[in-house]
Amino acid sequence: MVYGVSDLGKTRSFMADFGLVPVDWPGNAAYFRGALSSPYIYVAEPSAEPSLKAIGLEVDSADDLALAARIEGASRIRELNRPGGGLCVNVALPGGISLELVHGVEDAPELPVRPPSVLNEGIRKARFNVPQRPEHGPCQVLRLGHVALGVPDPVATKDWAVRNLGMIVSDAMLQPGSQDEFLGFFMRCDRGATPTDHHTLLFSKAGTSHVHHVSFEVQDIDAVHMGHEWLKSRRYKAHWGVGRHVLGSQVFDYWWDPDGFRVEHYADGDLYDNAVPATTVEGTDDQLWTWGPEVPSEFFQQTREV
């Protein structure tokens, strides 16, 4: 994710408390990574008008990058001056949101990761003679999981992603009471028989193109809750959570960053291979969550006032 932000100092402080790790790199932008192998997953550039700048997606091969350069409106292949190097093609989704399709970015060494909590379930026990005491502090972000976007025409955007990115639909959402008016699509990568995230991109109908939220995976449900407690203790603005989604099943927790953009911690999301067919549901509030606090009305707005 590449964002323009109003105050790099505030963004650095927030992202550290959110669980991202700063990356040392020359220039005016601030880079942040998770614990896994991506050398960066969030870029903050100083900007008088905070906004989403681009979404980066990695392609499998140099041949795929060459194909990307042939998409209508795409840039030529260029070198990236960022941690890990690599090559990039810029192209816009229908509605104007910029994508950076990249290849050849060198992995960074993974950071030490806290093992997942061992749970004593009701009829299956696995932890003996060891207490369960999560540490208080920022939760550890592992990786960038997915991005939710508002777009004027979700059908056209979905078709573009299927045609140009090889993505497939996990769930389609209909206007309640309609048989053919679609409100949005949860899109996943087609990795054949290899399971992948239930969605990497979500396209939802909106008056103008914008980012709704960006979501980062953490280790387990304890991490989601402990992250919530830490951010609350640091007096940041909570948005919605902790709860569990229906579509994708993630245990979620949403917060506002210093510029009024939503960021999410999640754990325990669904993984699908390409044999799982798409479902179609009505886009009602009860498709948003199965437990947790009531969905706030601001969840359907673009950003908040700051």
In total, the number of strands is 19
**Annotated CATH architecture:** Roll
Beta-strand proportion: 25-35%
> Count the helices. How many?
4
What's the CATH H-level homologous superfamily? 2,3-Dihydroxybiphenyl 1,2-Dioxygenase, domain 1
> Strand pairing plus helix content: what structural class?
alpha+beta
Integer count of domains: 1
CA distance, first residue to last residue: 21 Å
Element pattern in H and E: EHEEEEHEEEEHEEEEEHEEEEE
CATH class label: Alpha Beta
Biggest beta sheet summary:
9 strands, mixed
**CATH level 3 topology:** 2,3-Dihydroxybiphenyl 1,2-Dioxygenase, domain 1
Query: Within the largest sheet, what's the order of strands?
Result: 15-16-17-14-9-13-11-10-19
Helix content: 10-25%
Describe the 3D structure.
With 306 residues, this protein is α+β, with helices and mostly antiparallel strands. It has a single domain, classed as Roll (2,3-Dihydroxybiphenyl 1,2-Dioxygenase, domain 1), CATH 3.10.180. The chain is built from 4 helices and 19 strands. It has helices at 8-18, 62-68, 154-165, 221-233, and strands at residues 2-5, 21-23, 30-33, 42-46, 51-58, 78-79, 87-92, 98-103, 141-151, 167-174, 182-189, 196-197, 201-205, 210-218, 237-244, 251-256, 262-267, 271-272, 279-282. Strands 15-16-17-14-9-13-11-10-19 form a 9-stranded mixed sheet. It has an 8-stranded mixed sheet with strand order 2-3-4-1-5-8-7-6. Strands 12-18 form a two-stranded antiparallel sheet. Strand 15 and strand 16 (251-256) form a beta hairpin. The longest helix has 13 residues, at 221-233. It starts with a strand and ends in a 24-residue tail after the last strand. The mean pLDDT is 96. This is VOC domain-containing protein. Keywords: Metal-binding. It comes from Cupriavidus necator. InterPro entries: Glyas_Bleomycin-R_OHBP_Dase, Glyas_Fos-R_dOase_dom, MMCE/EMCE_epimerase, VOC_core. Pfam families: Glyoxalase.
